[in-house]
Amino acid sequence: MVENVQPLHRESVKINRNLLKIPPLSFRIFVPSRNVLLSTNLCIILIVMKKLLSTMIILTALLILCGISSAKPFSKALPPVNAYSAGLGMAGVAVGNDPATLYWNPGGVGLTNQIAVDISMAAAGFESPGNWSFIMLNSSDIDGNRIGFGLLRNFSEFEDKKEYKSYTVSLPLSSSFQSGSLPVGISVKYITENIEGDGWHHGMSLDFGSMWNPGGGVVFGYSTLNAVGSALRSFSHESWFGASWGADGQPISFSSQFRADELTDWDYISKHYSVGMNYAPRSMIAEFTQTNLFEFRGGYLVDGDEKWASFGIEVIKGENDSHIAYTMMVDPVGWKNRAHYISYGYSKIAAKKPALWQGR
Description:
Elements: H1 17-20, H2 24-29, H3 34-66, E1 74-75, H4 83-87, H5 101-104, E2 114-123, E3 131-142, E4 145-157, E5 163-177, E6 182-195, E7 200-215, E8 218-229, E9 238-245, E10 252-259, H6 266-269, E11 272-279, H7 284-289, E12 294-303, E13 306-316, E14 322-330, E15 338-349
Parallel strand pairs: 1-4
Antiparallel strand pairs: 2-3, 2-15, 3-4, 4-5, 5-6, 6-7, 7-8, 8-9, 9-10, 10-11, 11-12, 12-13, 13-14, 14-15
């Protein structure tokens, strides 16, 4: 005799989340609804901003205190990036999983796997910072697109010894192809600049870039900065090629790049390149928690007649938590010129695509 079988209704299924040890957020991420995904990422962004509020207040107070001493102009070879990129010797064209990709290669926004906020300051000495940046990336990967926002301040000195100040607003957009292994990006920039008190001049520019992951932890990058734009001094045309390697599970990763404006001139390339290495040792506790507690990095930068060596350290509080990084850049000849970069960031994994750059 066949027993009566009650139909299985969705309401009758009871899931013990504590037993499964699955965070409640996981149920929301995989719901096939764009509205739910947007609300989830909005909550993450609000959490990130809340975490950074106290830090922003402290940094603002430090800026006010440092205001009693005037900032010194930077070398034009040292852009307003974060301490992570500076620690790699400015070799960031093929490094995607870091907010500084907003400056080097808009295509790298398509490789980042975090919703992140990064605040950085840089000074030519222990005085008021001359360069600073605020970068925010949204890697929610809605419809295959990723976006970001950046506000950067640059204070440099050109070859003619004229001091140069600028503010840049950057809006990158990246779309991925070939199952995410080939992101292509474009960044719209608005720049206002002032050279030796000559008044503020304004203009717009476009950056183009892409990265390619053939597998094995290798990533190639290409970018053209200021491909199209106004005839301001800020809009110098630059093309870069880069490569990086960071296999999953390996504590050491490498990156390199060279300027590609004149590919047939080896002498030119030999005077415009940079290399960097990142070392992320895992202690027994870190191995258990799957968290890098410290990272160390170093790099070497050549820009024309200038040469810089970089040494950096980063302290990370949890895989999806805050981190603070410091990098010192020095002239290896005489060790006289120095620059200091410090960054604070907070991020949450967006849990969409795996990171292709494993050194972060």
